[in-house]
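Final report, closing paragraph on structural work. Over the funding period we assembled a curated collection of sequence-structure pairs, and we close with a single example.
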Amino acid sequence: SLLQEIMEVDKAASKESDLPPTEPAADPEQEDDPPTMFDLPTEIIQLIVSYLSLQDICQLGATCRHGHSLTHDENFWEFQVWREFRLFFTTDLSTVTEALTKPTRYPLEGVAYDPRVQGNREISVIYSPEFRRIMIEKNGKAKQDPFRAMLENSIKDILPRLLAFYVSLPAEEQCSARLVLFGPGIESANTKLLVHKIVNARSSTFDAVEFIKGLPGGIGSGVRINYKHMYNFDLMCLYSNSESIRESVYRNRSSARLEPEINRMLVKDSSNGKLAIQPSIVKLLPTIHALVFAVDTSISSRERVVEEVEVMRKELGLMLESMSKFHQSTPLLVLACRSGAVEADSCMTLQDIIEGLQLQNMKCPWGVFDVCCDNMRGVEKGLDWVLHHLAKKRREWTYHSMQGQNG
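Its predicted structure, as stored:
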């Protein structure tokens, strides 16, 4: 993989950097060495290098010990990811609050905590638009005739759909992940088109391959999506009630989402009166790899932020509590949805959502991404992260399983 290639280049460069620098004999008549880029302040060097391509940055790290040191600086890669992708990734929860309040010219569009990520350099590779091009160059594919390339690309678009319908594929190839999508964001009048755009998309990014059936009663039914020809994942949607009831009740009273009489996902325990997830939904949870919680960030006034987020926090908390009985570290993807017609000043900020949902205290991997439902901007960033996390988790599990069998 590209990460392995980078690590090999870094290993070679580190051998050079480990050697003690040799000091030339002092010669008063000899002129000083001419200044280099590395004599500039660190902040300026990082800014200059941030405009290089990912491949050029990797090559810079193999030139000398100064370049090796720079390209191994986590602060540089954090700046690179923040500037280019408007994202902040961390493996330390204590840094989240500082990042949210940090004054910057690059407004954040996503924040994620993931202990499995090996620094922002890995994130830069994942999100880099050069990733596919570099992999093609690594494989040494010759330049093809344009008509032949067009024909082969057409076949690649059709092939996954044909395989899904007519060929019995192994379970791992049929579905790389099972995601459940729920929350006020898929039911609000402002952002309910999120699901329709994902399911009805016919593009190289989202391609609905087939519908899947859930448990008896339809719970857990959804659609299988071929995502960027890299992953096939099942997306299951959980709605609280019929569309007519949702729009008539939730529009003016969001707290109704915590009433079992209206929200059919919830039940009230007769013994202690506490709310819980419906048992039929709980049966579905052991098969889920990740939770996707969609919220509508539009608000009528800033005074309602605390009230709205508190309802979201309680609803999410019930699902996380039920999920913890089966999985201890299920990744949580929060889609902070808004309509393009709504001004940013009339929406909750990422800080409002993270602090309101108390994500900075959560130990499981989580990510919050700003999503515009009109153009789906932000959805890809969230899915890129969570699907990469699950694929990496599966590879590690497969590796340890093989080691156990060999032992």
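Residues 379-406 form the longest helix (28 residues). Confidence is low (pLDDT under 50) at residues 138-144, 155-174. We thank the funder for supporting this effort.
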